[in-house]
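Structure first, sequence second, as always.
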């Protein structure tokens, strides 16, 4: 409990991280309140096309080229983009942690085999790999999430492997082995809790990357055609960049703020969890 209080105290000293938390809370409120504030389908055409923001009080963020409410799309898109970002990151972190933990703990042939498998994924450019996976599986929320997780887990695996290699030789681990504690129990109760700091920081930054990747896929027409996301809005407005730039600017600014907030929170977590900075 004291360690948690110390963490909160160190984290609260970082004003930039607190600002990131405030922005993320705002985005979460948008996502949660989307169905209540905009109960209609965000794909519905409810106004004239190309209504600029502030021109009509009913659609305060304007409309796109088909007359759809941009505010409704922005709020509903927050839910989809955040869901894909967090679920894809969770899948990548679980996969990468499992592979990295096994490689770092057992070392030897197991380490060589798992790291060669990891390097195989790292030799392929991530975004191109995601495009290929989505194109093969067909665009949908589930397939986009799987594709992002597939290209994200290798970096987590290498990080966790390094942490396990360092912690494997510590006295408390050797003592656990000496008293006959099982491998799985040692991994889960002795080593993994001590390696959680870097994993949490990396995971927070990966959410931002996942949101950007989803936006890029949707911009190229590889997003789920049945759901509204920020990338879908940007992709739909790319043909009207000169005449109605606000269509892409509004969701683009939302992505910018969200990614910035996640990076600020990640830096704050890194400072708070880094033992060398405890007395800063």
């Amino acid at each position: 409990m004291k360690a948690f209080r110390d963490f909160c105290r160190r984290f609260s000293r970082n004003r930039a991280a607190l600002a990131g938390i405030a922005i993320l809370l705002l985005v979460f409120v948008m996502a949660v309140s989307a169905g209540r504030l905009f109960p209609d389908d965000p794909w519905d055409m409810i106004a004239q096309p190309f209504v600029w923001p502030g021109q009509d009080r009913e659609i305060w963020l304007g409309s796109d080229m088909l007359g759809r409410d941009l505010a409704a799309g922005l709020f509903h898109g927050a839910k989809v983009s955040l869901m894909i970002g967090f679920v894809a990151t969770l899948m990548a972190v679980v996969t990468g942690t499992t592979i990295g933990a096994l490689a770092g703990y057992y070392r030897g042939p197991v380490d060589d085999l798992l790291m060669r498998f990891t390097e195989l994924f790292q030799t392929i450019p991530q975004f191109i790999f995601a495009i290929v996976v989505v194109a093969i599986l067909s665009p949908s929320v589930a397939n986009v999430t799987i594709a992002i997780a597939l290209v994200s887990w290798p970096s987590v695996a290498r990080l966790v492997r390094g942490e396990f290699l360092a912690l494997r030789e510590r006295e408390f681990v050797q003592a656990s082995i000496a008293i006959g504690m099982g491998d799985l129990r040692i991994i889960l109760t002795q080593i993994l809790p001590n390696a959680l700091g870097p994993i949490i920081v990396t995971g927070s930054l990966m959410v931002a990357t996942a949101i950007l990747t989803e936006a890029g896929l949707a911009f190229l027409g590889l997003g789920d055609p049945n759901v509204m996301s920020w990338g879908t809005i940007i992709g739909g407005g790319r043909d009207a960049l000169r005449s109605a730039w606000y269509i892409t600017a509004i969701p683009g600014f939302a992505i910018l703020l969200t990614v910035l907030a996640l990076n600020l929170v990640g830096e704050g977590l890194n400072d708070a969890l880094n033992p060398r900075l405890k007395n800063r």
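Margin note: The mean pLDDT is 89.
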